[in-house]
């Protein structure tokens, strides 16, 4: 271990002693060390510390907002996330998630980029299911209704390919397909920020986003188009 850590045997021994005194590890009869229940549990928290420490600068300007504490406690699942900065790069990655979808596209939004509507609808027309949740105060671009009508969006709803719901407020946004996902946290004022996000196709990252979407889905109300304003 000293060789692997590029340190001395004495330093390794001192650290093992510290870990043992802290009840994180225990020395077995055969002389080998193993994690205690306390130590094993503490190790599960390391990814959360890594995620937050690596993105400390980002979280100076962003917040977990209205996310339930049970999801904040699982923030370590986001540790594999690739930081994406810049509106253009964010939207391109977003569009890539649409392109790569084979089964479904799920979205939790408080803002709708006009440029992404057409590629999304075209993908849904291939049989990909689309479920989305809008905030009652979602920012929708001018011309959205006309574009959706032109693309035959209402027919997709009738066919069951599109399902939609509405929440009173959405701070954290997620966009995902069956194998990749992205999450966009709100700024300190609780407003959505399309200029920065985290993206990954790692299963743990995807699970966090999928579980959060489902949590919001089952807690949302009936969709009301009349509440949206351009």
Question: Could you characterize the architecture of this molecule?
Answer:
- The chain is of the alpha+beta class and 230 residues long.
- It contains ten helices and twelve strands.
- Strand 8 (173-176) and strand 9 (181-184) form a beta hairpin.
- It starts with a helix and ends in an 8-residue tail after the last strand.
- The model has no long low-confidence stretch (mean pLDDT 93).
**What general outline do the C-alpha atoms trace?**
elongated
CATH homologous superfamily of the largest domain, by name? Answer: Endonuclease Chain A
Could you tell me how far the N terminus lies from the C terminus, measured between alpha carbons in angstroms? 62 Å
Helix content: 25-40%
Topology, number of strands:
12
Strand content: 15-25%
Level-2 CATH architecture of the largest domain: 2-Layer Sandwich
CATH topology call of the largest domain: Endonuclease, Chain A
Class by SSE composition:
alpha+beta
N-to-C order of helices and strands: HHEEHHEHEHEHEHHEEEEEHE
So what's the CATH class of the largest domain? Alpha Beta
Q: Give the helix tally.
A: 10
Low-confidence parts: none
Spatial extent as radius of gyration? 22 Å
- List the strand order in the largest sheet: 4-11-9-8-5-6-7-12
> Main sheet, how many strands, which sense, barrel?
8 strands, mixed
Instruction: Estimate nothing, just give the exact number of structural domains.
Output: 2
Mean pLDDT: 93
In short:
Strands 4-11-9-8-5-6-7-12 form an eight-stranded mixed β-sheet, sandwiched between helices. The chain has a two-stranded antiparallel ribbon with strand order 1-2.
